[in-house]
Structures are given as C-alpha cells and as structure tokens.
Specification:
With 146 residues, the chain is mainly alpha-helical. Helices cover 74% and strands 0% of the residues. Helix 1 (15-47) packs antiparallel against helix 2 (56-92), helix 1 runs parallel beside helix 3 and helix 2 (56-92) runs antiparallel to helix 3.
Length: 146
C-alpha cells in the first residue's frame, strides 16, 4: 500500500499534524521493537531445541530476516527522531519558510515506515508458520485450560 493512501495531503497539513502522525509511527516502532525482540528470543532460546535438521535452513533464513528487520528498524527510528526534532523546530519558529523538501522527506519516511511494517508482518507470518510446523512435527499440541 502506498503512503498516499495513508496521508493524502502532505502539502496542506500543518507541522503539528505531521508531528502527530510521526509520533504515531514512533509509538508503533516502539511496539515493533518489542515484537522483534520477542520473536527472536522465542526462536533462539525456546524453539531451537525442537528443530529437526531439515528445518535448520528455514530457521536460519528467518533469523537473518529478523536481524535485517531489526537493523532496518534502528535506521527508521534514527531518521524519525531527527525528523521529529526538525518538526519541533518548524513548529516553534513561525518565521521559517514552508519547507517543500522537508515535506518530501516526510513522504519518503512514511513510505519507508510502511514498507518496514509490511516486511515485518511477512516475517512474523513466516516465524509463526515455522513454529507451528515445528510443533506439529513434534506433536506438541498443548492446550491451555481456563
């Protein structure tokens, strides 16, 4: 999904509105950090002992994708923090001209954010699928009773 569907009027929105949107991304990215850490730890510490040799390649590939997603996450967080600092400066100084390049950078950052989000969703699906397959192979059908 293109960023256009998420944010329709880049060039008409106020700095405050762009800041609020950026802050939503920051909150999402904080959650994604915990998700990445949880999935990585779950695979590395809890499921590796269940893996059969024929599944090692899939697990290794998935772990590489998780590492790449973590690296991508760090880069986006860094860019977003700098972006939000610049937005704060723009909000505080009404004498600064409307910066078209900044708005273009905002759109690029948004595209990057949503591409990361889609990639993370695909990695999580793969991780869950591998885990489910491993549990089925080991016949681990535990059910929690409440």
């Amino acid at each position: 999904m293109e960023a256009k569907a998420h944010f329709k009027h880049y060039y008409q929105e106020s700095w405050e509105e762009l800041y609020l949107l950026s802050d939503e991304w920051k909150t999402d990215l904080e959650f994604y950090h915990y998700e990445l850490r949880f999935i990585t730890n779950a695979i590395n510490k809890n499921f590796l002992w269940l893996i059969k040799d024929e599944n090692i390649a899939d697990i290794h590939d998935n772990i590489k994708k998780l590492k790449n997603a973590n690296d991508q996450h760090k880069k986006i967080v860094f860019k977003l923090n700098n972006h939000m600092i610049r937005l704060e400066e723009l909000m505080m100084n009404s004498f600064l001209p409307d910066d078209e390049q900044f708005r273009e950078d905002h759109k690029k950052l948004e595209d990057e954010f949503y591409a990361f989000e889609r990639n993370l969703r695909a990695i999580k699906m793969e991780s869950f699928s591998i885990t489910e397959h491993t549990f089925e192979e080991k016949n681990l059908n535990y059910t929690l009773a409440f």
